[in-house]
Amino acid sequence: MIAATSLSNQLEFRRRKLRMSKSAVAKRARVPIATVRRILSGKERSPGISNIAAIAGALGVELRLHEIQTAQEFRKARAAEKATKLVKLVQGTMALESQAVNQQTLNDMIDQTTSELLAGPPKRLWDD
């Protein structure tokens, strides 16, 4: 994912390359000039995607989403991350009670928890 400031820098670079004024960008994008200035300077912390897309369009570029992981890979990574946290909590409790387990058992617990998270309701997977 590109950070907003990086995106702002790329749009500003494009504007300069085109030698287009910020007011021309604002008119073409139908976005207030103050908003254009804030976005292109990187001072807008949470620029609206519609404003970014409008400015990009005014500069002759488009925004695209690029999948860096398939949905299945992303879900599995989330499940493994959450399973590891949950098992470490259990392991910590077990260690306090002098019932710690070896690394292989711990890995098996993580694998089992990962499978259960993937098979269970989505809310369980995505809630923290």
Commentary on this structure:
- This protein has 128 residues and is mainly alpha-helical.
- Helix content is 70%, strand content 0%.
- It has seven helices and no strands.
- It has helices at residues 4-18, 22-29, 33-41, 49-58, 71-96, 103-119, 122-126.
- The radius of gyration is 24 Å and the shape is elongated.
- The model has no long low-confidence stretch (mean pLDDT 89).
Helices and strands in order:
Blueprint: H1 4-18, H2 22-29, H3 33-41, H4 49-58, H5 71-96, H6 103-119, H7 122-126
Helix pairs in contact: 2-3, 2-4, 5-6
Question: What descriptors fit this protein?
Answer:
mainly alpha; 70% helix; 128 residues
Distance between the first and last residues' Cα = 22 Å
Radius of gyration: 24 Å
Counting DSSP H or I runs of 4 or more residues, the number of helices is 7
Query: Main sheet, how many strands, which sense, barrel?
Result: none
What is the structural class?
Answer: mainly alpha
How confident is the prediction overall: mean pLDDT?
89
Tell me the helix content.
over 70%
In terms of DSSP E residues, the strand content is: under 5%
Low-pLDDT stretches are none
Number of DSSP strand runs: 0
* Principal-axis shape: elongated
Order of helices and strands: HHHHHHH
Put the structure in a nutshell.
The protein has 128 residues and is mainly alpha-helical. Helix content is 70%, strand content 0%. The relative contact order is 0.10.
